[in-house]
């Protein structure tokens, strides 16, 4: 589970860096990218193996310090995203600089506190660390209070944007906001626990376990919320990509016949590479081009259809699939041989105004299926 979460987080970071490379001047996007990058870098230091290995090299407690500093940077960049998105440029930059100074002071304070504690005092987990040591209590208390402050502010901004957004963005924002509120509550409870343990009191194990579970669940909700709109959009785009590839293949019989009847209607394009044939832009372009070529071919042969019909829907409504295919092929043969009709039928319109494009595509697919079945 942990490995899957880390892989998903790494994929999200990679995708954001890809977007940032295309829009390097976007301050909000840069803040989101740095937020996710800091979160991803802090995760290995929280794992037992990563913490032990880093402590062996840098000294006991070093992994804990690096992890918490990265968490401070994570929530700071999360705040910066909203500052740049909700305020004008100058105001957002000024506020971001002020918040940057605050987080820098907090980071320096916890680093100094960690550097002055006895050996291995920070090597344990939150539940096992000796909080009666003032520096240790200060380390956890200051870090937790800043996290609570930043997460609460970000959650309030998220709720405001969620009310103004539509699905699926509102769903993602509400989920992320709930996750941030949950993390802020967990940080507040942990601050109270630090105060109790600093004064020598004890906290039951189930309470510590419940707070840890709340933190994990809230983090998962936050990650799900910020990735949900993008994942859903990608799923929709993948479905459209698959559909266009299938429709392109289904139109092959009709397109072949129309290309034979009206070769001048086939759009001339530069030869595409194999990679372009699988890329979304190439698939959508080839799909649209094939539809246009089929429609132009039908307009070309429509006067040669006998008896006269006004649209593909009438052609399909009155004929069986085999008869439809025969009449289409007969019209192409008449057109190629220069047969002149005494009273030519009105040509098929290229895009009837009273019908949607989707209805037009479905009729083209039905005609192509009729040709395929009759072959």
Structural notes for this entry:
The chain is an all-alpha fold and 375 residues long. It is built from 14 helices and no strands. Helix 1 (2-22) runs antiparallel to helix 2. The two termini are 53 Å apart. The chain has helices spanning 2-22, 27-46, 48-58, 62-86, 89-115, 134-164, 169-198, 205-250, 252-261, 274-278, 280-301, 312-318, 321-336, 357-374. It is elongated, with a radius of gyration of 32 Å. The longest helix has 46 residues, at 205-250.
Which features characterize this protein?
375 residues; mainly alpha; 14 helices; 77% helix; elongated
Quick gist of this model?
The chain is mostly helical and 375 residues long. It is built from 14 helices and no strands.
Mean pLDDT: 80
Q: Describe the global form.
A: elongated
SSE string? HHHHHHHHHHHHHH
What is the C-alpha radius of gyration, as a whole number of Å? 32 Å
Low-pLDDT segments, ≥5 res? 342-353
What is the overall number of helices?
Answer: 14
Largest sheet report: none
Strand element count: 0
Strand content: under 5%
What share of the residues lie within helices?
Answer: over 70%
Strand-pairing-aware structural class: mainly alpha
The end-to-end span amounts to 53 Å
